[in-house]
């Protein structure tokens, strides 16, 4: 048993997603590096503003800050190793590394789904129950809900990691993808994968599909409420408060459902890989732009932060 465990731990996983793009290694590396750098800068900037600006200490921006933290963690879980694989010429990962990568990416997806659901509830209260908004959701309650979301994802991470790390593999494993994709990797296992499959199925239903239905229900109420507003100016103002979140939700679930809806056959493999590349690299870069492009509160907070930094620099120069 110990010998089989050591064999599994020493299994080498070969990631061959970029095999057909070897002639474009350098441009691809530079493109992904630029996207990742912009993603880090954008997400950290918004998170920093949410932390330091008292104007942004409210449920909506607390949720946005945590959502962008998820985006940063998700892309960081995948992209640095992918950049290494592009340049190395031998893109391999250990069984332990693959287990960590797939478990972390799955748990972050759960947090992001739960946060998007909480944000839809926040927008529902702001538009449909404005007079009771501060009673029904406040900073302390928001903190508890966010902490619960992270705790649920942590439990998922630990449970999935335990089952995946204890799967048995023999010989080298080849995955035709950019990273250690959970489904094809588990399918190579020689031991029983039923517990892992059941966990994945139950999580997909309870923490992905159910939150999606709750988000749809929230927006049905929001749309009916907006349509009942008599003035076009009032309708436009109400819609603008949830347009950013609606766009992010649409992009997120469209990408998610396309990824899981595309068959994993050789015929559609390139389509699946292209959607995956967009999901883990481009989407985390776009979301901060969506939330900040027309958000006056963040613009004001950014100007105030820049003014403080400028003042500090001037004082230091004068000394």
Automatic annotation (TrEMBL):
Pfam families: 7tm_4. Gene3D superfamilies: Rhodopsin 7-helix transmembrane proteins. This is Olfactory receptor. The chain crosses the membrane at residues 28-51, 63-83, 103-121, 141-165, 196-227, 239-262, 274-293. It is found in: Cell membrane. It is a multi-pass membrane protein. Residues 42-291 form the G-protein coupled receptors family 1 profile domain. Belongs to the G-protein coupled receptor 1 family. It comes from Staurois parvus.
């Amino acid at each position: 048993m110990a010998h089989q465990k050591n064999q599994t731990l020493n299994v080498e996983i070969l990631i061959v997603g970029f095999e057909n793009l070897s002639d474009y290694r350098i441009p691809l590396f530079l493109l992904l590096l630029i996207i990742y750098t912009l993603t880090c800068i954008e997400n950290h900037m918004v998170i920093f503003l949410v932390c330091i600006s008292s104007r942004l200490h409210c449920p909506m921006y607390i949720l946005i800050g945590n959502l962008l933290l998820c985006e940063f963690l998700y892309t960081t879980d995948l992209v640095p190793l992918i950049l290494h694989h592009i340049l190395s010429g031998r893109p391999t990962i250990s069984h332990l590394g693959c287990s960590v990568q797939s478990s972390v990416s799955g748990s972050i997806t759960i947090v992001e789904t739960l946060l998007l659901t909480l944000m839809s509830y926040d927008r529902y209260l702001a538009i449909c129950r404005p007079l009771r908004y501060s009673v029904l959701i406040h900073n302390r309650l928001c903190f508890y809900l966010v902490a619960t979301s992270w705790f649920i994802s942590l439990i998922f991470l630990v449970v999935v990691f335990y089952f995946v790390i204890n799967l048995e593999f023999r010989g080298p494993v080849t995955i035709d993808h950019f990273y250690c994709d959970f489904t094809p990797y588990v399918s190579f296992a020689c031991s029983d994968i039923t517990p892992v499959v059941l966990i994945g199925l139950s999580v997909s239903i309870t923490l992905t599909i159910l939150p999606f239905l709750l988000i749809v229900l929230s927006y049905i109420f929001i749309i009916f409420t907006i349509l009942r507003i008599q003035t076009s100016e009032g309708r436009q103002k109400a819609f603008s408060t949830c347009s950013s979140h609606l766009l992010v939700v649409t992009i997120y679930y469209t990408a998610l459902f396309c990824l899981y809806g595309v068959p994993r056959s050789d015929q559609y493999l390139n389509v699946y890989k292209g959607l995956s590349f967009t999901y883990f690299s481009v989407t985390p870069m776009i979301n901060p732009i969506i939330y900040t492009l027309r958000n006056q509160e963040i613009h004001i907070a950014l100007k105030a932060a820049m003014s403080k930094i400028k003042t500090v620099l001037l004082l230091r120069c004068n000394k």
